[in-house]
Amino acid sequence: MSDNSAPALIGSSGDSLREAFGKELTRIAPEFPKLVVLDADVAGGTGVHHFRKAHPDKFIQCGIAEQNMVAAAAGLAATGMLPVVTGFACFLERAYEQARLSVGYARRNVKIVASHPGLDVGPDGGSAQALEDIAAFRAIPGMVVISPADPIEQALATRAILEYDGPVYMRTGRSGSVRLFNDDHVFEIGKGQIIRHGLDVTLVACGVEVARSLKAAELLAEEGIEARVVNMPTIKPIDEALLKRCVLETGCMVTAEDHNIYGGLGSAVAEAVAKNRPCPIEMIGLKDSFGTSGEPDELAEHFQITAPHIAEAAKRAISRKENLQ
Amino acid sequence: MPTCAPVTETASKTATTHPVISAPDIEVQIAEAARFTRRHLIASIYRATSGHPGGALSCADILATLFGAELNVWPSNINDPQRDRFVLSKGHACPTLYAIAAWHGFCDKKESLNLRRLGSPFQGHPHVKDLPWVETSTGSLGQGFSVAMGMALGLRLQKIRARVYTVLGDGEMQEGSVWETAMCSAHHKLDNICAIVDYNKMQSDALNEEICGIAPLADKWRAFGWEVFEIDGHDIPQILSTLHRAATTRGKPSCIIANTIKGKGVPYMEGSPAWHGSVKLSHEQAETALQALGCTAEEIKEFLDV
């Protein structure tokens, strides 16, 4: 931004997931000649202002009209283009039916990338906090749903979704995020990975909750509990093989997500576990409620999705497991 | 099948690029295709025991003209990036699309009578994964128009000179997203898209003006930055000449408001919202309709014997 008097966008100067997405998309764009980016007047918030600056001829401004934007992306894909639709998660939900029919049902190669998911939106309040987007998009047949945990993973996922042929919904994030992975990190659609070893309980998380789960594992370790942490960036298709292995090796689980406990990661994990070998599962997330205004950390505390809450849930899961034995 | 020779591929191709066929000839061929289309859609809706005959009949002349003379699409080039695109945004009128497609050889005339049945690709609303010559899945009003706009953008970005045509219903004008797309198309100066509104003045339950008035429709489209043409949507020479005028419009998109009659061609359906349906046609109703559409007793038997 050349105008120094313009207010700084909160998080945009830091290591936020949206910045990682926007910068990587801009960097790798020359490798994808059919790539176009669609925006609904929120480019500064989604990170694609970098793309607009570098590739103005590939940037399509759609105005504040998400329904048209998402269906138009399907039309672009129908002519062989590779459209990436960007917007705030809660406003992209407005185009859910377009994502269902024109993208999902017609199976168009459209990538929907949503910034500002969950409580991470913060002070804008409950109206702007999408806490049901994963559930909604997961229910569209054939739709891949991704929520990366750190900037490195976000950048890798950005490339992966462009290389993947099919509809994808991917979350980014607004706040400055914790760096979890090194440059040698691997992201593969449909694969989770164990990022901390342990045999007492498995903590399965996506997005901002991965860092909190790692912290929870440290808290548990202080009490002699060895928690395994699984980073599960792809919510759909979920990594059933890894979950099956974790059930066998740890016997109980906690899921953690910045999302309603209904329909998101917790549900996806429970569905997969129930199909194979069931085990006690505790779910950390919004307990079927909307958000409210506050800083993301305050909100995480208020809605009980921080590391101590995950650690408490882990102890409940372990005691349920022991009761079964 | 009724004895109507299909328009040959050469004939329809030459209509736009090599005008070796005289105008009256192509008009006669389109009228013949429209007649077949009306008969075929009545038969398919009768056989399906459900469907939307009123709005299917009202757009039959428009689709017959598009496929007969305007679109450079034939069964042999459905994957050609250079082809024109047609999107039936009012997807519930798909019996018309299936019929005109059958007439031009995109699908089998008999198979396409197998409407709305399990296992049939001819679903109650058109689906691109079932029928490769359908450009996009429709059935949720407004979406086809937005998808068509995206196609127009994609073609322009790739410097493909093909055009995009889409037919919308008048009730569809009540969908807010239609106006998002109208605004966006004009903003991007998309002169390779032509929206045709099948303005039969009626929708599912009653007249447009009783449900939620859409008038003054032409003024609305003009205010959104479109070149607007108002025509008689059953006058084939007028549809033809207007499509040509729309194609030469530069710097803005074109909207053709085609004034039509709901149920056109079947007197007992004309002007009655009751036939917007999804309705079930009795054998007698289907027979009366096909008689009105000029079918012989033998043709009626062939169409209606399931």
Question: What can you tell me about this protein's structure?
Answer:
The complex is a heterodimer of chains A (325) and B (306). By secondary structure, chain A is an alpha/beta fold. Helices cover 40% and strands 18% of the residues of chain A. Chain A has helices at residues 17-28, 43-46, 49-54, 66-78, 89-92, 96-105, 133-138, 151-163, 209-222, 240-250, 265-275, 296-302, 307-324; strands at 35-39, 59-61, 82-88, 111-115, 144-146, 168-171, 193-196, 201-205, 227-231, 234-236, 253-260, 281-286. Chain A has a 7-stranded mixed β-sheet, sandwiched between helices. In chain A, strands 7-9-8-11-12 form a 5-stranded mixed β-sheet, sandwiched between helices. In chain A, helix 9 links the parallel strand 8 (201-205) and strand 9. The longest helix of chain A has 18 residues, at 307-324. With 306 residues, chain B is α/β, with parallel strands linked by helices. Chain B is 42% helix and 9% strand. Chain B contains 12 helices and 5 strands. A 5-stranded parallel β-sheet of chain B has the order 1-2-3-5-4, sandwiched between helices. In chain B, helix 4 packs across helix 10 (236-247) and helix 6 (143-157) packs parallel to helix 7. Chain B is globular. Chain B starts with 8 loop residues before the first helix and ends with a helix. Mean pLDDT of chain B is 92; it is low at 1-16. The chains are: A alpha/beta (325), B alpha/beta (306). The A-B interface holds A 36, 60, 62-63, 65, 67-68, 70-81, 83, 97-98, 101-102, 105-107 and B 81, 85, 127-129, 135-140, 142-143, 146-155, 157-158, 160, 176-177, 180-181, 183-184, 187-188.
